[in-house]
Amino acid sequence: MPAPDLVTAELTLTGRITTASNATFLGSIGEVVVVYKPIAGESPLWDFPHGTLAHREVAAYLVSQLFGWDVVPHTWLRDGPMGEGMVQLWQEQDPAQSAVNLMAPDHVPETGWKHVLEGRDENGRMVALVHEDSQALRRMAVFDVVVNNADRKGDHILSMPDGHRHGVDHGLTFHRDPKLRTMLWGWLGDALTTDERDGISRVSEGLHGELGRNLADLLSADEIASLAARCARLHWAGRFPAPGGEMPAVPWPLF
């Protein structure tokens, strides 16, 4: 059976993801399982223009493609049962793996994990927020800086069975003001690798070509200019940045 046209073939809803803050549905296009977020189901926000989150999700995918690291699953705009919205290929993650975790501070392994912060849980016990020290998460952290991701929660990192990590839920991205809120602070101040700097360069160069033309249909001119400026600053600094702006450094809730 030939693969369905993901833009024009019928999108059938099969369930609703009730943990999402915006209307989010599970669906299928033929035998392809997808996530569908209609623009009509987006909740108004005080700091992002209403009705733009789906466009930002697609913009994040386009930037991810130019990085070449497969951070964001295939994402596109199309019509659906509730009107135009973002559609993304469903990813079946491995429930036995967790790239971000909370654990007792004295139980944090000496290698393989990065310690982010400590706090107290609902029972008053001290816990440490940690994440994997892996190439996949380092690349995601670079991606988040570039797209100015304001919502990298722990559950927005999908642990795949083969060890790859996908990032999802990129509606709160590309704001022109500093908004970076993420769990992935473990490399703060560390030098970028050649691979990471090369990825940033690919995005910078793409903004003068096809990427820039495609983003013009999804983001404002000011937001694209801010994206270019973030790429330039990050490449020039050559290091993972510290938190900036007036926003909290981590999202809430954490997961």
Helix and strand arrangement:
Elements: E1 12-16, E2 25-29, E3 32-38, H1 53-67, E4 75-78, E5 85-89, E6 100-103, E7 113-120, E8 126-132, H2 135-147, E9 157-159, E10 165-167, H3 194-206, H4 210-215, H5 221-237
Antiparallel strand pairs: 1-2, 2-3, 3-5, 4-5, 6-8, 7-8, 9-10
Helix pairs in contact: 3-5
Could you describe the 3D structure shown?
- The protein has 2 domains: 12-96 and 134-237, no CATH class; 100-129, no CATH class.
- It is 25% helix and 20% strand.
- The protein contains 5 helices and 10 strands, in the order E-E-E-H-E-E-E-E-E-H-E-E-H-H-H.
- The strands form 3 sheets. The protein has a 5-stranded antiparallel beta sheet with strand order 1-2-3-5-4, covered by helices on one side. It has a 3-stranded antiparallel beta sheet with strand order 6-8-7, with no helix packed on it.
- The protein starts with 11 loop residues before the first strand and ends in an 18-residue tail after the last helix.
Summary tags:
255 residues; alpha+beta; 5-stranded antiparallel sheet; 5 helices; 10 strands
Query: How far do the termini sit from each other?
Result: 39 Å
**Which stretches are poorly predicted, pLDDT < 50 over at least 5 residues?**
none
Order of strands across the main sheet: 1-2-3-5-4
Q: Provide the succession of SSEs.
A: EEEHEEEEEHEEHHH
Largest sheet data:
5 strands, antiparallel
Percent in helix? 25-40%
Q: Care to count the β-strands?
A: 10
Mean pLDDT: 94
Beta fraction: 15-25%
Class by SSE composition: alpha+beta
How many domains? The number is 2
